[in-house]
Amino acid sequence: MTDFINHFHFLRPEWLALIPGLLVLEWLLQKGQRTADSFDQIIDSSLLAALRVQGTRTRWFTPASAIALLFGLLTLMLAGPSWRQQPSPLAENTAPLVMILDVSESMSSTDIEPSRFSRGIQKMHDLIDLTPDRPIAILAFAGSAHTVIPLTNDHEILKSFLTALRVGIVPRRGKYPEYALASVNRVLIGNPNRANVLLVTDGLGADSLELTTSWCRQQPHLLSVFGIGTADPAGSDVPLDREALTTLADRCNGSYVEITVDTRDVEKVARGLRDSYRILDNDALPWVDGGYALLFPAMVLALLWFRRGWTRLWVWPMFLLVLALPSEGLAQVRQDRQITQPESALSSPTATSDSWLTTAIDGFVGLWLTPDQYGRLLLELGHYQKAAGIFDDPGWQGVAHYYGADFARAALLFTRIDSPAALFNEANAKAHQRDYVGARKTYDAVLAVYPSLANARTNRELMQHIIEEANRLSESQTPEAGVGSEEIDPGTDPQSSEGATELALDEQQLIQYSAEDILASPELANLWMQNVQPDPSNFLRNKFSAQYQERGVSEQ
Is this structure's pTM higher than 0.70? Predict the structure, then answer.
């Protein structure tokens, strides 16, 4: 009850302003009816009361009281009483997954094509795709254990670093998965949920079974084993140690899954993972309109209009007001629908031009609505491309293109309006198309007119941060082999032609570009992206070597 009182409010309180005017109108109508009674002028009031059929009896349920009650219900419906928000449709799986990958020499065996390691990487990619909302960390081990990437929900980064791993990337040879257990504890610090630990390997070390079993008994986490390889000695110098891996999974109350040629193995691993879902609360969720519950008693009262003497002429405009019910309360829902749902066939220019039914509907609606009104209706329904073609106003055309993710065209249309709001929309459109420099300049123009506009200042600071990060990354890039460098790949013959010599001399004069130059020019941006090192294998190798020199075989 306390929550109800604290959160009760009206979504559209302006409709409550109708109450005084309509009450005055009803009083005037009742007064007019009493004045129009001709018997009052010729018969005494006391005698007239005795002559009337109803006599002196009074009833509480009369046309006037019924209309007043109906009026109150309709007004409350229009005002939109609300006391709770819509429940969040989103849930996040907070049970983390830590994948421990074996990068020892035996994983290069080709008993499974192309190799055990390559197939293990492929299966881990598939598992990441099957768990899109789960935080995942990746560890690597051989003779030492290292954290490749800590817990993250950015699965694209996970795949990038996973692809960069190689057999023998750690500085020490061996096969000791127990060294990775300290890294598991480290990446799970501060996580209140019981985690899933997946060991991807083809065997264990001499003491791995006992040490890992002891760790499992002390931890609440679920350890499962993914066996990579075949147990046939003829297929590999080091067969899959199936018995030891199965025993380890049983002792840790996990499951043992062996690699298959299809996706059944990965699907079995995904089904065996623990789940811990958390509802994502969002203060921006729309409030539930509680006025719809009043519709049914209002409909019952409306049925009395068919009786003679129960009609009030002024009530009819209320239906027009109901039809004109504003839609601000559903704005968030429509925005979410635009993001998550694809455009319908109605929004396709080809479909609308070829459909005679759509043409007929457009012609009929055009008899009653202006192009801007019709465009606004289409915009609310989510048909952004069609709405952009219907609007006459360039501002609304820009809004339609903006919602339809055509940011370049939206930015051009916003330039046709000379107002700070249009400038702000133009800056947002430029930011979405990654024209960060242009967006920053436009935000500056907005702030020059309205320096206290918080949204523009926040967005401007974000653009500045992106540009500064790009500047730092550009300054840190060094010439690589084959791209403006004099270094020659050892696996190729030296280039001794005159053209190659002249090219090397010219490329010694390095030109430093700023982020403004890079982001403002598509050609420079493409060249800059080509110069960014796409393979982090060397970085990981150097990182693991430094960690081994600093703290040894484990992160304990």
Answer: no
